[in-house]
Amino acid sequence: MKQLALALAAAILLAGTSASATTKTPAGIEKKAKKAATYTVDVAKSSIGWNAKKVGGEHSGTVNFSKGELTLDGNKLTGGSFVADMTSIKDTDITNEGMNGRLVGHLKSDDFFSTEKNPTSTFKITKVAPIAGAAAGAPNYTVSGDLTIKGITKPVTFPAVVTVSGNTAEASAKVEINRVDYDIKYRAAIIGTAADKIIDDKFTLDLKMVAGK
User: Fold this and answer.
1) Predicted structure pTM score
2) CA atoms within 13 A on the CB side of 189
3) Interval 11-34 mean pLDDT
4) 58 and 44 in contact (C-beta within 8 Å)?
5) Distance CA 126, CA 56 (A)
């Protein structure tokens, strides 16, 4: 009888300890923390457009993405980066083949992007700030990051539109760049070029990124 009583007491004690441990376990502790998801840029569906103005005209064209990614926590953008293939630069407004080739060759030269020495440009997000109350289709984030052109890195900030649907994320933005910051000074006003030969110091990039898990 004494042994039976001891066994029952031990069983009750163990049961009580187990119940107590379960009670003290924080609710939801078994749940795994969510991890940010990485979306890989589909370079075939993504694009970079450029536009540069000069006295009496302008030129437009494209540059290809080499690779890129967007990082999201749920539907919220948290980071990302991309690499642009500067050797792929094209002009799309000049129809004369010879003139087009000369312009593209000049853009690839040391006067502009020096693509033989610097075949890529990169951008890495350093900060993302949601824009409260953004209307559908309007910029819903302010994105800041480090842009590297010709081996020179400078911070840039711009508004962006980011949407997520299923396993696909899309981001678009129009970014204004001061080329002088990246030592692209050919016919820049800052070096005293004749007024009728000046090329605007600023050019714009139209970015469209389509990425999937």
Assistant:
1) 0.82
2) 10
3) 44
4) no
5) 37
